[in-house]
Write a structure and sequence with these properties.
By secondary structure, the protein is mostly helical. The protein has helices spanning 2-26, 30-44, 49-69, 82-113, 116-124, 128-141, 143-161. It is flat and about 70 Å long. The termini are far apart.
């Protein structure tokens, strides 16, 4: 009985620390998250203090401009009409054009304080290019296993559909 009570108390104690850790992670504001990302990138780019300070402020401006260019998510109210779908597509393409303009503008600004490879790294850290880079890195690490497993998985899916 004492042993079970001790184990239960120990589990409750450990669980309380796990919950507190999760609550602390949730308290990070978007501005803090941007600040952390900017500082991490400046360390990855091996910038000196002066350049790092310029980079962090410029990167914050860049992320803010990107967020402003993104459209608001539409509310989901049942099945959209054809007109609503066309309007949503047009808004999406307008937003993509705004995002492209922001990227073009900030490539020029970043190139004033960074080298070309550093600018590429910063620009690929945001958006789909960064995700593709992560997938490529994972593919390099586990290339032979993933290639065989993925091929088998596709074959099994095809068999199941027949």
């Amino acid at each position: 009985m004492r042993k079970n009570l001790f184990v239960f108390a120990l589990l409750a104690f450990v669980f309380s620390f796990a919950v507190n850790g999760q609550e602390q992670k949730r308290k990070i504001t978007p501005e803090q998250r941007i600040e952390f990302r900017a500082k991490r990138l400046s360390k990855e780019l091996l910038l000196d203090e002066k350049t790092s300070a310029k980079f962090v402020t410029l990167y914050k401006e860049y992320v803010t401009a990107l967020k402003a260019a993104h459209p608001a998510k539409p509310e989901k109210k049942g099945e959209p009409t054809d007109a609503q779908r066309i309007e949503r597509l047009q808004k999406r393409y307008e937003a993509q054009a705004k995002i492209a303009n922001v990227n073009k503008e900030y490539v020029g600004k970043f190139s004033k304080i960074l080298t070309a490879p550093q600018v590429e790294k910063v620009m690929s850290a945001n958006g789909w290019q960064g995700k593709n880079r992560f997938v490529k890195q994972q593919g390099k690490k586990f290339n032979s296993k993933n290639a065989k497993g993925a091929a088998r998985g596709k074959q099994n899916v095809k068999r199941d559909k027949k």
